[in-house]
UniProtKB/TrEMBL annotation:
Residues noted as binding substrate in the record, renumbered to the chain: 196, 200, 234, 254, 360, 365
Glucose-6-phosphate dehydrogenase C-terminal domain sequence ranges: 207-508
Protein name (record): Glucose-6-phosphate 1-dehydrogenase
InterPro entries documented for this protein: G6P_DH, G6P_DH_AS, G6P_DH_C, G6P_DH_NAD-bd, NAD(P)-bd_dom_sf
Role, per record: Catalyzes the oxidation of glucose 6-phosphate to 6-phosphogluconolactone.
Upper classification of the organism: Bacteria, Pseudomonadati, Verrucomicrobiota, Verrucomicrobiia, Verrucomicrobiales
Entry GO MF terms: glucose-6-phosphate dehydrogenase activity; NADP binding
Family named by the database record: Belongs to the glucose-6-phosphate dehydrogenase family.
Active-site residue list: 259 (proton acceptor)
Pathway assigned to this chain's UniProt record: Carbohydrate degradation; pentose phosphate pathway; D-ribulose 5-phosphate from D-glucose 6-phosphate (oxidative stage): step 1/3
GO biological process: glucose metabolic process; pentose-phosphate shunt, oxidative branch
Amino acid sequence: MTDNPFREEQVARNIAEQCTIVIFGATGDLTHRKLVPAIYNIAADGELPHGTRIVGFARRDKSDEQFRQELAEMNAKVSRQGHSDTLWDSYAENIHYHQSTFTDLDGYKSLAKRLDELEDAAGGPCNRLFYLASAPEFFDDILENLKEAGLNQARGDKWSRVIVEKPFGKDLATAKHLNEVVNATFEEKDTYRIDHYLGKETAQNIMVLRFANAIFEPLWNNQFIDHVQITCSEDLGMEGGRGGYYDTAGALRDMVQNHLLQLLSLVAMEPPVDLSADGVRDAKVNVLRSLRPMPTAEDVAANVVRGQYTAGSINGNSVPGYREEDRVNPQSMTEAYVALRLHIDNWRWEGVPFFVRVGKRLPKKSTEISIHFKKAPNVLFNRDNTSGRENVLVIRIQPDEGHSLRMVSKIPGATTRMESVKMDFRYATSFGKASPEAYERLLLDAMAGDATLFARRDEVENAWKFIDQIEHAWHQSDNPPPMAEFEAGSWGPAEADALLAEGGRTWRRL
């Protein structure tokens, strides 16, 4: 026992409990490439509670053995820690398959019976975690049928929880509807809206970086920070038939509404009153509520750039333009790139712009946050060329997780010449091992009842409220802002550069 009650609380809240994980959409890519490999790696790390079971739920007809074999083959290809037949075989008997359509209530009743049988054979009732990994159009059916079959109810001291994958709605109205369906089935405390970006180690470390280091928090305000950039770039386009989904969503709804606004909230939030789930989420919601509205198409045109890539080259390979991609409408007005200039209207951030950009077919795959501090006074060492002389703190989310701090140093020699240098921290080298995959952490947290890294209802709705203003200007106003174009393999349209150039700034080169 420790004499520090704060430390006791931190340890206790992260203990995962044995449960049966029921995955709806068990034959899909998410289950095979992310969820089951995550559970396997949790087991490899010795953190999976003994007796935890997986029950896959999908419409295709297959046996338990066939399902296990398919999962094993994919796990061998994608598992973070490689694949051990011995470890897999020791766990495979806890993997089961249940065939049913998502709309057939009888399938859920038979699922309830089968879960009871599996749990009785193992010694009695067990906690249950339902994971909605299906297409979003089936979320309502799954939730309502879980309720009709009585699977949403806790039994004695055994809980029932639900994890809902993104997209959580496609606008404010549909998000509110889905929230109502979820909350009519599960209590908010048992509802886990997942955003895998928040499971990434560096995203989790943003609060530690800010609030545990006295050298940063006193400077984390408009007195010392000039601006903030958040970039999420992808070199891929619409491979694998993704164009059919993406052309109905776009970069703003697919990435900004959830992933990037979540990162922005962590960077900009006030210190939470405590590290409880609601303490952290209260602080994040306040950031979303403080985002300066864009009520008119003119506001959107002045602060948001949307774009599509034209034919170009990525890593020496020729690639088509967005409108020539498979399953994309040749007349599409869906953005494959978006850049935003955002303002947070509160005491800490008044006057500090936040620049956010995300796009397909950019030169490399990378996600990072860069904090650009104000320049030192233009006296002494900064009288001449001050280009590139500002201090920049970079938080790398992926792929090379870590932090770096750029500062100015004197070049050795008799003359006073200066150059920017970088202090660099990398998770893999500093801690001697790769960071766990995001889904590993998030699954363990859901099994432990820790919702800190999951979105709460008001988070989702406030994010959509802000995004809907931009979508309305693009698709429903009489004078919509234009669609910019950029060559695939470049860093985006010139219009996005102009967002920063107005204040004498430039995008950071990744």
